[in-house]
């Protein structure tokens, strides 16, 4: 019998040819064959053809389940990772493709690849010019980085985000654009990577991809990246074109696109006066109202839309215009309908309460707010949340990082602003809210709730009947105690209430009240006048007390706005619900953790490194 002797390179070529055929591939998928292949390619005397052939055999075997198992059990992953350093392009391609198949089908392969330093070597290959190779490479990095903070840090330290942004600018290969944006979507959850990407003009790079998107999936990835970044981009300038584009995208028929676009708008308008003005000037209020009407049954759209509208209706020079637009498009009634915690989540309800408060800053909206039933619903929510708070005052979170005392405080502050109108004060009085406001001065109420309650009472005390009801609650002693509160807002409001209650009282009683009041409450006249409507109040510059013939002496600044909320630091990622709102394949890194980052007590703890919370929930009142 004649024996044929083959050189190693010839044997490798024959095996590679056989492995390409399914029938012979099954026969080659044995532990003995894997061991022989490892020995052959590890031989320092192996030539390029041998290495190319053996690497090709590994790749062919990885295309079926049996082959993947024998490769993994044969401890071949360290060898495959080393082959990524090969000077032979074909060897690198085969090794990477084999690792890609292992990551796709064997969960345990991920840990072994990371243990062998596979992530670092893959990031080093991002300089390649081969788009198909890069598509596989970025997909491997995505699978390694998904839900793994350590891998994200490795990619960051190796300048991976910069390389990925460069790829977006250089390629038009759809699959590479998709895998690259998919990876960036995961990376952009990390707080440190966010800042790095923003510093490298990531918003401008990604914005370019949205004007003529090569596919819907690339567009959605880009929007999700922007949403992840947007909570840290609130101080950026020259975003007019992006804001205009996002407003246009609100008219899109794809729910995911709309959800991301409105989430980004919510973040970018949080605590940024220029962006708020830009949205109003680009017809954004109309677009947001249409989004609310069309997305009434989709809270992933509804809540950020309400938040964005809440932002643009306060604290900038075009806020009054935005408030008027909502009224002119008959938007109050559908907004008030959202005050239903049996249908909508508490985050949506809370955002709606704050939006109604902002709309009440316009005198023209008082009648519409009253006729829409907003006061009645706010009073119902006030009673309900107070009962819950009394029952469990120490329970922190009730729904997506919302606290019951937050809802309670929001209701009170909204009614405070609404009560600036005399007829509204009568409605609030008839709904028996005054005794409840007084009860909220006592424990277990927190300081913010006390501040809100004293503020509301300070407005209601303008009504003589309300003043009588307040006195009937025997709260004078409590108000006197609150004069010494460490919170300046509480003390000042309490002083103002006591001053009003002493009106038209005998001289001795007035003298008694004045002795209890600290002397510093009589300074800063113009601020107190503003609060009571003397120069810039709800009555258009005229003194509004219905039963006092002359304005009161000046008191210290009563903070009608600043004490009711904090805009936070910007903010949510759909996201940040887990890392993202619309979760696909359990990918919690798909979207930015919501949109809630603030140091104020109303907001949840700061985002963790794996980005648990989406950013568009900030309390920009």
Please characterize this protein's 3D structure.
- With 621 residues, this protein is mainly alpha-helical.
- The chain is 61% helix and 0% strand.
- The protein contains 35 helices and no strands.
- The model is unreliable at 1-7 and 519-621 (pLDDT under 50).
Give the gist of this structure.
This protein is an all-alpha fold and 621 residues long. It contains 35 helices and no strands.
Keywords:
621 residues; mainly alpha; 61% helix; disordered C terminus
Beta-strand portion reads under 5%
Our count of helices gives: 35
Globally, the shape reads elongated
- Arithmetic mean of pLDDT: 81
Instruction: Provide the gyration radius in Å.
Output: 32 Å
Count all strands and give the number: 0
Gap from first CA to last CA: 92 Å
- Main β-sheet, in a few words? none
Query: Which assembly state applies to the chains in this document?
Result: single chain
Q: What portion of residues is helical?
A: 55-70%
Structural class: mainly alpha
Uncertain segments are: 1-7, 519-621
Q: Which helices and strands appear, and what pairs or packs with what?
A:
Layout: H1 8-19, H2 22-28, H3 31-42, H4 48-61, H5 65-73, H6 77-83, H7 89-105, H8 108-115, H9 118-124, H10 131-145, H11 149-157, H12 160-170, H13 174-187, H14 191-199, H15 202-211, H16 216-230, H17 240-249, H18 255-268, H19 273-281, H20 284-294, H21 299-312, H22 319-328, H23 332-336, H24 346-359, H25 366-371, H26 374-391, H27 404-418, H28 422-430, H29 434-439, H30 447-460, H31 464-472, H32 476-482, H33 488-501, H34 507-516, H35 525-531
Helix pairs in contact: 1-4, 3-4, 4-7, 6-7, 7-10, 10-13, 12-13, 13-16, 15-16, 16-18, 17-18, 18-21, 20-21, 21-24, 24-27, 26-27, 27-30, 30-33, 32-33
């Amino acid at each position: 019998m004649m024996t044929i002797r083959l050189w190693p390179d010839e044997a490798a070529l024959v095996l590679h040819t056989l492995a390409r055929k399914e029938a012979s591939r099954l026969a080659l998928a044995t532990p003995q064959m894997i061991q022989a292949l490892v020995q052959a390619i590890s031989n320092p005397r192996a030539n390029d053809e041998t290495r190319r052939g053996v690497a090709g055999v590994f790749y062919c075997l990885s295309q079926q389940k049996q082959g993947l198992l024998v490769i993994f059990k044969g401890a071949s992953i360290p060898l495959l990772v080393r082959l990524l350093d090969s000077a032979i392009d074909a060897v690198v391609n085969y090794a990477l493709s084999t690792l890609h198949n292992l990551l796709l089908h064997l969960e345990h392969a991920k840990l072994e690849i990371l243990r062998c330093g596979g992530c670092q070597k893959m990031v080093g290959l991002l300089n390649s010019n081969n788009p198909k190779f890069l598509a596989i490479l970025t997909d491997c990095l995505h699978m390694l980085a998904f839900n793994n903070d350590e891998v994200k840090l490795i990619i960051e330290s190796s300048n991976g985000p910069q390389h990925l942004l460069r790829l977006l600018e250089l390629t038009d290969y759809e699959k590479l654009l998709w895998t690259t944006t998919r990876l960036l979507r995961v990376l952009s959850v990390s707080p440190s990577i966010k800042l790095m990407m923003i510093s490298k003009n990531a918003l401008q790079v990604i914005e370019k991809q949205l004007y003529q998107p090569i596919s819907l999936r690339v567009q959605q990835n880009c929007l999700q990246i922007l949403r992840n970044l947007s909570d840290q981009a609130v101080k950026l300038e020259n975003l007019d074109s992006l804001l205009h584009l996002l407003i246009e995208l609100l008219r899109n028929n794809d729910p995911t696109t709309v959800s991301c676009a409105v989430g980004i708008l919510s973040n970018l308008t949080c605590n940024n006066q220029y962006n708020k003005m830009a949205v109003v000037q680009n017809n954004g209020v109309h677009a947001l109202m249409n989004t609310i009407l069309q997305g009434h049954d989709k809270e992933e759209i509804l809540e950020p839309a309400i938040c964005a509208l809440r932002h643009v209706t306060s604290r900038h020079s075009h806020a009054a215009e935005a408030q008027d637009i909502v009224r002119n498009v008959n938007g109050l009634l559908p907004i008030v309908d959202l005050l239903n915690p049996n249908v909508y989540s508490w985050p949506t309800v809370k955002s709606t309460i704050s939006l109604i408060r902002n709309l009440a800053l316009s005198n023209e909206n008082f009648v519409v707010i009253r006729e829409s039933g907003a006061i009645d619903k706010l009073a119902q929510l006030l009673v309900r949340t107070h009962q819950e708070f009394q029952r469990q005052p120490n329970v922190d979170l009730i729904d997506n990082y919302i606290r019951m005392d937050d809802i309670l405080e929001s209701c009170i502050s909204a009614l405070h602003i609404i009560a600036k109108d005399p007829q509204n004060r009568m409605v609030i009085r008839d709904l028996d809210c005054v005794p409840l406001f007084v009860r909220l001065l006592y424990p277990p109420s927190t300081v913010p709730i006390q501040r809100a309650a004293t503020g509301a009472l300070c407005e209601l005390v303008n009504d003589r009947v309300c003043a009588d009801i307040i006195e009937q609650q025997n709260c004078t002693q409590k108000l006197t105690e609150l004069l010494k509160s460490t919170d300046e807002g509480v003390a000042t409001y309490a002083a103002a209430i006591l001053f009003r209650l002493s009106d038209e009282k005998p001289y001795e009683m007035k003298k008694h009240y004045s002795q209890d009041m600290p002397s510093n409450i009589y300074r800063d006249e113009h601020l107190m006048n503003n609060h009571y409507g003397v120069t810039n109040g709800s009555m258009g510059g005229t003194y509004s007390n219905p039963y006092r013939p002359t304005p009161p002496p000046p008191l210290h600044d009563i903070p009608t706005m600043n004490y009711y909320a904090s805009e936070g630091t910007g903010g949510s990622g759909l996201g940040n619900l887990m890392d993202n709102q619309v979760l696909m394949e359990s990918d919690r890194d798909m979207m930015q953790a919501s949109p809630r980052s603030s140091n104020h007590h109303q907001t949840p703890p700061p985002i963790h490194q794996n980005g648990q919370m989406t950013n568009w929930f900030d309390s920009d009142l």
